[in-house]
Amino acid sequence: MRMCARVSRKRPVAFLAELLILTSISFLPSSAQSPASGTIAFTGGRLIDGTGRAPIQPATVVITNGRIAGVGPAELVGIPAGATRVDLSGKTIMPGLVNVHGHLTVDENTRLPVREHIIQRLRAYADYGVTTVMSLGQTKEDETEGLRIREEQRQGKLGGARYYTAGQNALAKTPEEARAVVARLADLKVDFIKTRLNGRPTDMDSETLGAVIDEAHKRGLRTAIHIFYLKDAKLAVEKGIDVIAHSVRDQDVDQALVAEMKRLNVAYVPTLTRDLSVFVYETRPEFFDDPFFRRGMYAYQTEVELLTRPEMQEKARTSPQVQALKQALQQGTRNLKLLFDAGVQVAMGTDTGSANDPGRWQGYFEHVEMQMMVEAGMTPMQVIVASTGDAAKVLRLDRELGTLDPGKWADLLVLNADPLADIRNTREIHSIWIAGRNVAEGPR
Description:
This protein has helices at residues 12-26, 114-127, 140-154, 175-187, 206-218, 230-238, 255-264, 272-279, 291-294, 297-307, 310-318, 320-342, 364-375, 380-386, 389-394; strands at 39-47, 56-64, 67-73, 84-87, 92-95, 97-102, 130-135, 162-165, 193-196, 223-226, 243-244, 267-268, 412-415, 429-434, 437-441. It is α/β, with parallel strands linked by helices.
């Protein structure tokens, strides 16, 4: 029944033509790669559409000029004459992953020039099926080049994961300065505003934080915040924040925070791999030998070499701050389950690629994050929705991507195994498509 609203049983060709006309009117221009031309039809596969609805098998997905033109049960979706057919029997089709909290920053470990580094890391995200990433915080050195690359990508000149950015963090000492900082970022046409509270005396006071958030909202920009402590999460929600961009890791979330987050529709991004990445290198992690990890060695090699040095491992083993994050991760994992069960919107994010923090692997850690979210108590389907459709909603990109619906960009993963049976099967990549273009196929 539900598919009848998405495809026409009687007039599939006419429906496709009408849809494409409506699409050209109602959607914004491409926000990433130049779309593939022509029509392609995926047939025979299992469809997970990113909404949480039951899978469809066998399904057909029709893509025309980079957008989804028809999707649903095979018997309901007409395939236009001349379409290129791709038999995906035995495969799973799902939306590309959307990372709400990544980074495209350069740091002291970067060996490439800024431009080449960012382009390489956008490729790394895409090579792992992360088709969209929000960079929540740039350094001064890479903000300008990052914005330039974003615009080139939107003009269809560059590939890689779709790139959105918050520019530099919005930090200030006074409300007046806060508004000026946000105004500068808004004039640069950033996609989000990111700020932070570290639980330190040097943090912004509540009035200054409120000015950051208020000015962002006046300029039509959503806001995200870095936090660790429950008290800071509460303050941010009180001041109108849109996204809590890390887990609360000092104590259990309380009912007051849960109620306010639900009332105000504040999203929660757990970034569990962020804390894992701080202490896991006290020894050589097993995943360094994982073939799926090693497909990214063109981007990872420098940091792998750094993190396998004995002095780096000893530093991790002996640092009280590093060791304390083991308990913080347990607390964050518990709070993810508490908030999700209470009905707070959860979206996948990782903090991968953060400046001067080696070992936060852009691409690979998004799959680890999803596994950790399942281990926290979410089901594979819930995690997939948090990593696709709901993540796109948090970024206000859901008119364009995140779910496999007519009119949206054909950003999708084709998998060799069913991720609902085991979330680790998101690593069984057959092919990756952005705007209907195959950008990565099979293991490297």
